[in-house]
Amino acid sequence: MVEGLDKSLSKIFLACLDYYQSNRDGGEKSQLRAVLAKGLTKTLSTAARLHEPFFAGWTADRDHPGYLMKFDPPMMVRVPFHVLPVFLERDQLGDIWALSRRIRTSSESTICLGGSNVIRSIFGDVGDVDFCEYIPLHSPITTRRFTEAISGTEDIVCLSINLGKEEWLLPSNQERPTIEQFETALLRNHSQGANVKINYITSAPSFGVLEATDKIIAIDHQGKSAALVQTFAAQEAPLVPIDWLPNQMNDPFELGRYIHWLIGAIGELKAGGELLKCTKRCASLSRILFLPDHTNAITHLLSSYKAVEEAALLEHSESLRMRISDSSDPRVANLLTNIDSQIARCRSNRSSTNSSSPATSFVIEAETVIEDLLRVVKM
Description:
Elements (H helix, E strand, L loop, with lengths): L4 H19 L7 H21 L7 E2 L6 E6 L2 E6 L9 H14 L6 E5 L13 E9 L6 H9 L4 E8 L2 E4 L9 H14 L3 E9 L3 E12 L16 E3 L13 H20 L3 H14 L3 H13 L1 H19 L5 H22 L6 H21 L1
Parallel strand pairs: 5-9
Antiparallel strand pairs: 1-2, 2-3, 4-5, 4-10, 6-7, 6-8, 8-9
Helix pairs in contact: 1-2, 1-6, 6-7, 7-8, 7-11, 8-11, 9-10
């Protein structure tokens, strides 16, 4: 990056935060918002172009400010420029891309990798992966594709389906929702922001056993939806070769909403003692605000306390095992074998740790890193 641009980006993004906090009840399409959007768009476009020389094969997306794109057959991927330096390795991306193709509920949808997974290189194994799938309301949902998505495949098992207030817990003999129920839920998702989510369990070579969540957003022809408040463009990497992205980064209100949410989540997680998850939110905040020293401090912290991440993965794996252990689905039996291997590996790694109290030391250092970051944001 060009010297001085990092600070300029921080100032512009903090201005977006200020705009959101001043207008959070409305965020109308005002002249002020248009002026901010013009400056933000120019900045995002410049930043993406400046990243091109440093990342072979990646090209700045002139149609979508702030993104870089790469064609690595058969994959076509877009990534926000601020997460590209800490994005997935090629093998990991290949596994994620292949999984997205198998759980995608519509051939016309835009499915994206989301959450902290877009900065995966900072963290170790986390045991879960989040997707966000934008489905156009005018796009017909074929019975075949929907049935395949909720039934899973030989090595992908659907765990649960949430359609608004209704929930189906699987795998079991429970009757699955019909395509008509799914389409009705999409309409409520678009008009009222009703929750539509499908959870899976699978295994991938680069990750081991994974719990995958596909959050679905129903959009109209303008990309509008009441459910857009459930996600953020700045933490999504679109995984389909679509010409127009329904959710983009160059809206100052939405970018400010993302930063505001990160700050709030960090405070809540810190107060609740969930410091590992809190540091992940801190990593996301340090990337979007271009605070490289803070990103480096978080990376060093996590690399110094692998035992803490191992403990979290062990807890997640054991919890996942308990949830599916009573299933009679033969596919689950194979996944249980993989989970048992993962649990055994985590326990072995924990027992070989030399530090007698890694958790205590991690808490002390994590709180320092978190406070240092929040201090900068509040300045």
